[in-house]
Amino acid sequence: MESEAQTRRNRIDDCLKQAGWHILPWSRGIDITSLRHHALQEYPTANGPADYALVVDGQVMAIVEAKKLSIGPAGVLVQAERYAEGPDPLPPFSEQQEIVRRVEKLFAFTDQIESRLKQAQSHVDRITQSLLVNAFRGELVPTEHALATAEGRNYETATELLARIQTEQNSATVSVKPKRNRVQQSKGSRS
Description:
This protein has helices at residues 4-18, 77-84, 93-137, 144-151, 158-175, 182-190; strands at residues 22-25, 37-43, 50-56, 59-64. By secondary structure, the chain is α+β, with helices and mostly antiparallel strands.
């Protein structure tokens, strides 16, 4: 699962850019009043830095906090309430509506990404099962017969190999003479 920083970089930055926001990193010398349609990263607030501050015509209109996908909306409610208590006044109602519209658009985009991720995971699961089936059938690599034919050489079939091994084992047991145990010899000679 991706980290919060990766979520911002890989998902939120792109969504903000697609929605027409210019993303800038926060710095002490930045003149907010000169910004028209910008998202300031790591914007300082009375409650700690926010991931983004959306600035329209020189005024902070909204604070955006990105969280990794494994944290649902309920997991960030306390933090959102802290930001809501901040000293910044709310923008006019028409601007609030525009912000809500854009945020809803971002949520819809996030839902699409989540749906695509589930589809991809399902596809990977099917591919894994297919690979295992093909592996057990011996279809992932060429057979010894195919390799020998391509190289113009002979090969042993599995039946021939098993017969040769059995013959070698049988001849090995016939030629081996059992050795006497020295402990038994010494006990036998004492009596």
